[in-house]
Design brief:
Butyryl-Coa Dehydrogenase, subunit A, domain 1, Butyryl-CoA Dehydrogenase, subunit A, domain 3, alpha+beta, 3 domains, Butyryl-CoA Dehydrogenase, subunit A, domain 2, globular, 383 residues, binds flavin-adenine dinucleotide, 11 helices
Amino acid sequence: MLNFAFTEEQEEFRKVLKDFTKSELLPTYMEWDRKGIFPGRLWKKMGEIGLTGLRIPAKYGGSEVDCVTTGIAAEEIGRGNFSMTAAVSSNALIGEIITKHASEEMKSKWLPPFASGEKIIGIAITEPGSGSDAAGLKTKAERRGDSYIISGEKSGITLATVADAFIVFAKTDPELGSRGVSAFLIESDRIGFDKKGYEDVGNIPTGRGSLYLDRVEIPKENLLGEEGKGFYQVMNGFDFSRFLLGLQALGSAYQTIEETIEHVKTRESFGKPLVRNQGVSFPIVEHYTQMELVRWQCYRGLWMRDQGMTHTAEAAMCKWLGPKVSREAIQDCLLLNGHYAYTKEMPIEQRLRDVMGMEIGDGTAQIQKIVIGKKLFGKEFKL
Ligand SMILES: Cc1cc2nc3c(=O)[nH]c(=O)nc-3n(C[C@H](O)[C@H](O)[C@H](O)COP(=O)(O)OP(=O)(O)OC[C@H]3O[C@@H](n4cnc5c(N)ncnc54)[C@H](O)[C@@H]3O)c2cc1C
């Protein structure tokens, strides 16, 4: 039986989020960007309605919803404030990693405050010398008695300036490639831990930046899962978060398209509404068509994950196409709104800046195409 309908609970959840977006996110979206500060109060509010713990079991204070429902949250929050989707997608990814791989003690300690939005955790893989080639990371973790000593530099990390802790990927065996990578939970107030924020193009409130670890000592219990399995843990998580990133970008584009439709119906030029010109209406129709196709591939992929099916290539497709078609739609909408949309009085330029970041974060289009190519051509013809 083929069924594309959301459940009643999912529709109800979407309605709650639409109200939240309308009352809390849309009116303040530009304010946080202009002030350049992290909206801690908003993050906590999102925690109160369960958005920061969507994939965390109820016994640790999470909402324990399925992947499709998490996708609905990414899309609806993306409509209101693209930067705040980190509370949904990054938390869903990190929530799954900790739930699946941390010890019982670590789960009890970290999951409840993380799920409620009181504590913030980031994820740190990228380094100055390795981004796309993530397995080439150089951060080292040495076992010494009951501790690990960790040294290295991480770059490009979302929430770098605000998070209480990070899942840090480091080599426990530098001789090995991806098989030498392990994952650790490291508190940002440990001795030897430092950070520096960037002046970013978009997503300014999320405090992206670099982390510096100079012989940071952590207890061995902070290792997540087994030594050498870190890379595979996170890659499985990316197969999930890539759908969410696609949907959050689309949410931002849907909001922009709807606002633009309103504009072109009401603004007149040469004695008729703008929309009556096919040069104006066709781009909107074309972008909307592409967005609908990618949106349904995102939900299909999330459904596949809920069914326990393999969905690596599907996730990669949604990751490269979702932010791209969204950015293109937003850019054309900016033009269709005329000169005023080129000012900072309207949110369209900010959406363009914010969504563009997701064409890089979590892996660029080229890297997603390599992943899809593996399925199409086989491992022996690795691109
Ligand atoms: C908004 C944002 C948020 C981010 N958040 C995080 C985070 O929270 N945690 C984290 O760890 N990282 C984060 N990153 C970093 C991000 O994951 C990396 O920037 C990304 O993986 C690309 O790495 P790089 O910047 O080093 O580019 P490089 O790897 O140097 O690539 C440069 C260019 O070359 C291309 N390229 C590289 N290799 C190949 C190849 N084999 N074939 C074809 N093309 C290739 C790339 O596609 C890219 O266009 C974030 C980045 C952004 C922009």
